C-alpha cells in the first residue's frame, strides 16, 4: 500500500522530479509492532540528503505520524520513506520547486532474513565498479542505477549479494548493505567519503564498538585485507547484522564479535 503526503494513493505525476531525475532521497526502515526503529537516525540522514539537494524539509513530526500509520500493526515489517523534490522546474533546473512530495509504502519482513542472520550469507564480488562521487557519497539519494546494475551483475554470477569495489579497487560495501570485518581486536570498515551509502546500522555499530573501547579503523582497503579477516559481517536497517560466511572461495567462521553486535543491535 502507498501513501502520498499521507493520503492513500499509488500514483505520482509524470512531472515528478524523482521520477524524471531521481531528484530526492529515501530510506528503508524496519518496524516492530507499528513503530519505526532508529527513527531519529533515519531522519538525520534524510535531512542531510535533502539539505545537500536543497529540497525543502517536510514536517518531520507529520512524516513520523504517516510512517506509524503505514507500519504493519503487529510483528516485524518495513516501511520505505521516499521524498521527491516535487513537480516542476525547467529541465534539470530545480528553481521554483518548493513543495516536496512524501511517498510512504509498507511491506512484510523478508522471510529469508532470519536465516541470513542465523546461518550467515555467502557473497560474490561484483565485476562492475562504483564510480567515485564525493558530492553524493554517503547519501541515500534516489539515483540508484549503480545498485541496479550491481545487483544484476551479482545475480548473473549466481550469488544473492556481493562485495562492491570502487574504480580504484577499494572495498565500499555490498549491493545493499555496509561491510565490517574484524582482525584481532580491531574493527575495519570502508570510509564513505568517495562513494557508498553511510548506513544507519553502520553508525550504530561504530558507536557501540567505540563505547566498548574497540579500535575502529576507517579507510581504503583492498580485497586482500578483507580476505585475511577473522570475521566479517554486513548490515542494513532491514536485515540488521548478518554474518558473512563466505566471499567467493574464502570461508569465515561466525565470530563472537559479530554475535555480540547482533545481540545488541538486532534485538533493539
Ligand atoms: C547500497 C547500500 N549500502 C548500505 C546500506 C545500509 O544502509 P542502512 O543501514 O541505513 O539501511 C543500504 C541500505 O539499503 C544500501 O542500499
TrEMBL record:
Database matches in InterPro entries: Aminodeoxychorismate_lyase_IV, Aminotrans_IV, Aminotrans_IV_CS, Aminotransferase-like, BCAT-like_C, BCAT-like_N, Class-IV_PLP-Dep_Aminotrnsfr
Instruction: Kindly give the Gene3D superfamilies that the UniProt entry links to this protein.
Output: 3.30.470.10, D-amino Acid Aminotransferase, subunit A, domain 2
- What Enzyme Commission number does this protein have? 4.1.3.38
Q: In which pathway does it act?
A: Cofactor biosynthesis; tetrahydrofolate biosynthesis; 4-aminobenzoate from chorismate: step 2/2
Which of UniProt's keywords are assigned here? Answer: Folate biosynthesis, Lyase, Pyridoxal phosphate
The top EC class is: lyase
Give the matching Pfam families. Aminotran_4
Q: In which domain of life is the source organism classified? A: Bacteria
Give any GO molecular function from the UniProt entry: 4-amino-4-deoxychorismate lyase activity
Catalyzed reactions:
4-amino-4-deoxychorismate = 4-aminobenzoate + pyruvate + H(+)
Q: What cofactor is this protein dependent on?
A: pyridoxal 5'-phosphate
Tell me which family the UniProt entry assigns to this protein: Belongs to the class-IV pyridoxal-phosphate-dependent aminotransferase family.
Subunit structure as annotated in this protein's UniProt entry? Homodimer.
- Name of the protein described by the UniProt record: Aminodeoxychorismate lyase
**The organism of origin for this protein:** Vibrio breoganii
Amino acid at each position: 500500500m502507498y501513501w502520498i503526503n499521507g493520503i492513500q494513493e499509488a500514483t505520482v505525476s509524470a512531472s515528478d522530479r524523482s521520477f524524471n531525475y531521481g531528484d530526492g532521497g529515501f530510506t528503508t526502515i524496519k518496524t516492530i509492532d507499528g513503530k519505526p526503529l532508529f527513527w531519529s537516525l533515519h531522519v538525520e540522514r534524510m535531512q542531510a540528503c535533502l539539505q545537500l539537494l536543497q529540497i525543502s524539509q517536510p514536517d518531520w513530526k507529520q512524516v513520523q505520524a504517516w510512517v506509524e500509520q503505514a507500519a504493519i500493526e503487529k510483528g516485524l515489517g518495513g516501511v520505505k520513506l521516499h521524498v521527491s523534490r516535487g513537480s516542476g522546474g525547467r529541465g534539470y533546473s530545480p528553481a521554483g520547486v518548493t513543495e516536496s512530495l512524501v511517498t510512504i509504502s509498507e511491506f512484510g519482513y523478508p522471510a529469508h532474513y532470519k536465516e541470513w542472520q542465523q546461518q550467515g550469507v555467502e557473497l560474490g564480488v561484483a565485476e562492475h565498479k562504483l564510480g567515485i562521487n564525493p558530492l553524493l557519497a554517503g547519501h541515500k539519494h534516489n539515483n540508484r542505477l549503480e545498485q541496479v546494475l550491481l545487483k544484476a551483475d551479482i545475480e548473473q554470477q549466481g550469488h544473492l549479494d556481493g562485495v562492491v569495489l570502487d574504480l580504484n579497487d577499494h572495498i565500499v560495501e555490498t549491493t545493499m548493505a555496509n561491510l565490517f570485518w574484524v582482525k584481532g581486536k580491531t574493527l575495519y570498515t570502508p570510509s564513505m567519503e568517495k562513494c557508498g551509502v553511510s548506513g544507519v546500522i553502520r553508525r550504530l555499530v561504530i558507536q557501540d564498538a567505540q563505547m566498548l573501547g574497540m579500535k575502529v579503523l576507517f579507510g581504503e582497503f583492498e580485497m586482500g585485507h578483507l580476505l585475511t579477516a577473522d570475521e566479517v559481517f554486513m548490515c542494513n536497517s532491514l536485515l540488521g547484522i548478518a554474518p558473512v560466511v563466505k566471499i567467493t572461495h574464502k570461508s569465515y567462521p561466525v565470530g563472537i564479535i559479530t554475535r555480540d553486535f547482533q545481540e545488541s543491535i538486532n534485538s533493539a
